[in-house]
Specification:
This protein has 13 helices and eleven strands. It is of the alpha/beta class. Bound molecules: aspartic acid (ASP).
Length: 377
Amino acid sequence: MVILNDIYWGESAPVAKYDQHKFAEFAALSPRELEQECRDQHGRLKHIIRAEHFDLDFLRTICETADAARSVAKMEDKFMKSLLTAKSVLNYFKQPSSRTFLSFSMAEAHLGMRREEVRDLKTSSEVKGESEKDSLRTASSYFDAIVCRHPSDIYDLFAVWVMKSSNRELPFVNAGSGKSEHPTQAALDYYTDWRWFNGDLDNKVFAYVGDCKRGRTIHSGAKLMALHKDTTIYFVAPEELQIDPETERYLQERDAKVIKETNGLASVVPLAHKIYMTRIQDEHGGKAEYDPNFIFRKEFLATMRPDAILEHPMPKREEIDPAIDYIKDDPRIKHWEEQRNGMWGRVALLAYLFDADADIRCRYEKIKSIGAGLRDN
Ligand code: ASP
């Protein structure tokens, strides 16, 4: 049984060695070459695997499509549900998930897609010794896209390699790969910011709090903020959970100012336009105890900027004061709304992958022009 990088390469060592050798050639691509492999001949993304492949135009498209979709679905649900009826998708979740799984599933339903799921690995041929390469390739025989969550940090790369090794290259969506990336969460967090700041995300201070070292939502999310001008990013965590050197270097190379705060959250609260809380990612080992100095306390609402927002990718534990969940009249508290935004953000991503995003935006403009009473859904 061969497991490398948390990927199961099958029962046969010689076959695993052969496949790993082929994969190593693909994995040697430069970041730029990999990005090219993830785009079609018109430059559109055909695989959503890494936040570093997103640019501001793409993000604006996603945000505008998500906004349009939630209104169109309210007014003309039939139209929305007719868009991708000919398309099918497999939700292939090899790691626990509630929000990402459900929001993808509902996003697919909003677009009329046929959808299936694999979540229980006991039902998989991998128990018969089939490699993950063959399982994924088999799955790709039946669908038009695959949305996947996996414990391996490099599963995104692996999956694109598998797609490219076949004659049937399906769009692959990374719904969370190990500790490394969660690009669709980053896109939906960005959408939440974009709505709150009316698209103006330059010259802002963002604070990422909690497990900065292993939090894939932080790794992906911070990279998007660095696309903007005059960005300052605080990583607020004890030394042992501080941001990894690769992510820090990536941000600095893009001119974001990076500040590491290891004493606690209180001093950063008044400075930040966004405070992004995360839990300890103890599924990767280590202790689960959250240092109380990094809890977002109810009192912080008084020192927080009036135009700032509080987010959390969820699930949460003790890192946000429980009293905050019962406050209904402070619009800066966004972690519940963020989840609903996630569904619409994923509608937009899937529509983009199948070239239906412009249809949604056009329909929205048309409904607006006839003066129908549009409302958010
Ligand atoms: N739901 C997010 C993720 O899958 C955050 C978390 O699990 O803490 O990474």
